[in-house]
Amino acid sequence: MNSRxxxxxxxxxxxxxxxxxxxxxxxxxxxxxxxxxxxxxxxxIVAVLPFVGEEDAARRFHGETMNAVAALxxxxxxxxxxxxxxxxxxxxxxxPPNRALVPAVRYALTGGVYGGDRPxxxxxxxxxxxMDGSMMIYTDDLVYDDIEGAMVSLxxxxxxxxxxxxxxxxxxxxxxxxxxxLYTFGVKTGLAPRWYVRPGEQISGAQSLxxxxxxxxxxxxxxxxxxxxxxxxSQDDLVYRGLTANDITYSEKLSSAFLTxxxxxxxxxxxxxxxxxxxxxxxxxxxxxxxxxxxxxxxxAAYTHSGVLTGFSTGLEAVLNYGPGMFIVGLRYSGDFNHLxxxxxxxxxxxxxxxxxxxxxxxxxxxxFGFFDMNK
Length: 376
Known about the structure:
Layout: H1 3-26, E1 44-48, H2 55-70, E2 75-79, E3 107-115, E4 122-130, E5 135-144, H3 147-162, E6 181-197, E7 206-220, E8 225-245, E9 248-267, E10 269-271, E11 274-295, E12 303-306, E13 309-322, E14 325-336, E15 340-344, E16 354-373
Parallel strand pairs: 1-2, 1-3
Antiparallel strand pairs: 3-4, 4-5, 6-7, 6-16, 7-8, 8-9, 9-11, 10-11, 11-13, 12-15, 13-14, 14-16, 15-16
């Protein structure tokens, strides 16, 4: 290995150490707090240490305590052998055990048998420890002069100690779902650019930019589909420029009001309080009153509509819950199937009829309210 390579490795050694040492430390086995001290069946593990005092009585009380812990069902007792304590180490009673000697346990029981005030009187004292913080939960004793009677009372003492455990249960708050309304009603308005195509025309010969607005309502058929109906008012402004008559060049404007009734099938894709809805459907456009005529020269005329327009609509609508209701934003295309005929109201019929079909876009904004939340 040449000297230049050695110098490069030596220069990079500090960086390598800084990278590897944290990684090695992170790789050490650290007990997870999730599920720590519990069995796979969610029973808390209780270490029952050897009892101190008169050997035979301590041994009997220890065995019966193990049975009493198992009878509590929410806990699982684990017997700790005296051999785990180093030689010369005193088995703890009124002090919490070292966690290194009783790893992976949630609670610990220590105890001892002691002489009472009278020669024939004895008492068993038990301590229950919380090993999460090595703190005492509760301690109590059982005074007896007959060990057989004490064995009968021991399960009650153990249950009494464990009744002082106050486990904090972290409850997951219920998920608050955004409202899913069965019915919605609202108002909307927006711009409506339109292109007018006469029979035989390949491209539109006139266009206009107007307003469109009205009422909208929907009923949810399921979580995915809804039926939507609207009642809209709009106006066509059909303008022709460069017309000539008797060597006079002029322009004319035909203005017609419409009441449009669209019917849609809508799909609803939700994300929290936001909803995106593609839709498609059909509509009827009913002319309202007579067509208003105006001209750049002094010409007066009256026109009436003939027929009802039908067509197809498709679009995309976004809904955002805000305040007591919801904002509505949408973009839509509509196209007539047939032509609207405008008749010149003249007995001699000296002016030819005007007919056209429309290609329309709508960019609108609205606000609506919901009724009957299906999530409740």
